Amino acid sequence: MQKNLSGVPSLAQIQNKPLRDHVLDMLHTAIVNGELKPGHTLVEAELAAQLGVSRAPLREAINILSTQGLVEVVPYHGTTVKTLSRKDIEELYSVRSMMEEFAIKHIILTANTSAVVADLRMICAEMLEAAEAGDLRAVNQIDRYFHDTLVASSGNDLLVMLWSTVSLRVRQVMSLRNRSKGDLHQIARNHIGIVDVIERRAVDEAVRLIHDHIGLTGDFIAEHWDDDGDAASKNGANTESS
Fold first, then answer.
1. Other C-beta atoms lying within 10 Å of the C-beta of residue 141
2. Which residues contact 10 (CB under 8 A, 6 or more apart)?
3. Cα 46 from Cα 24, distance rounded (Å)
4. Which residues of 37-72 are buried (b: 16+ CB within 10 A; e: fewer)?
5. How does 196-233 read in b/e, with b if 16+ C-beta sit within 10 Å?
6. Could you report the per-residue pLDDT of 66-92, keeping only the tens digit for each?
7. Label partner for 154 (CA 20 to 30 A): which of 47, 87, 115, 194?
8. Residues 6+ apart with CB under 8 A from 15
9. Claim: this prediction has a pTM higher than 0.85
10. Helices (H), strands (E): how many in the chain?
């Protein structure tokens, strides 16, 4: 299991990857982190010059981003970062809720529930520690890891593959939102409650909790989302989970 989530990030090894993959990683990170916002036009000549690469690897990277649904390529009109409407947010969180419901049912009914519960409790302990420190960034990071672990623990390879796309879009949405710290302890406690019902193998209650946990957040974000693809600033309140 991943350790020290709230501490200093470990240094990644230098990898010998194709230039296209390096370009893809940089653009991917910029979009998911909200540096390249929805609707932003990607001008090949400018990006190639900024990144110090030719247009060939840049175009390959953009094509991959297009298949991931992060950019839109319109022939003869150019390429833009895909905008996100209220409808997109509602659909994203609806699908996410169904995926996590499937994962929880599988964990309770067929997986090694006790081992999964032990992993999730360790994650919750780190989340509580980050909440005590008032570290919103760490809480959000650990929050994402909790849900990634939940889905991965289902043991369903197809679900995990589909989740990688959904979780990226959720990260992008959360990066674009204006967020205050809110009650970080409540965020952590909500996750502990989910683990408690999984441990008791209470399927119906677990499903209800995960739907409430995700649905309330999705509803809040959609309500305060501008259809030009950015988070509205009229309400800075934080929800209780990501």
1. 18
2. 4
3. 16
4. bbebebeeeebbeebebeeebbbbbbebbeebebbb
5. bbbbeeebeebbebbebbbeebbebbbebbeeebbbee
6. 988 889 988 878 899 988 888 989 999
7. 87
8. none
9. no
10. 9, 5
Q: Which two tokens stand for residue 30?
A: 């910029």
Quick check: 242 and 140 in contact, CB under 8 A? yes
| pLDDT exceeds 50 at position 1 | no
d(CA 176, CA 139): 17
> How far apart are the two ends of the chain, measured CA to CA in Å?
21
Give pLDDT, residue 237: 43
Element (H, E) at 112: none
> Is the per-residue pLDDT at 124 higher than 90?
yes
User: Which residue is associated with the tokens 């409790």?
Assistant: 121
Residue with the bigger pLDDT between 151 and 184: it is 151
- Is the pLDDT assigned to residue 14 strictly greater than 50? no
Cα 210–chain centre separation: 16
- Percent of the chain residues topping a pLDDT of 90: 48
Mean pLDDT of 108-123: 93
**Using the 8-state DSSP alphabet, how is residue 8 labeled?**
P
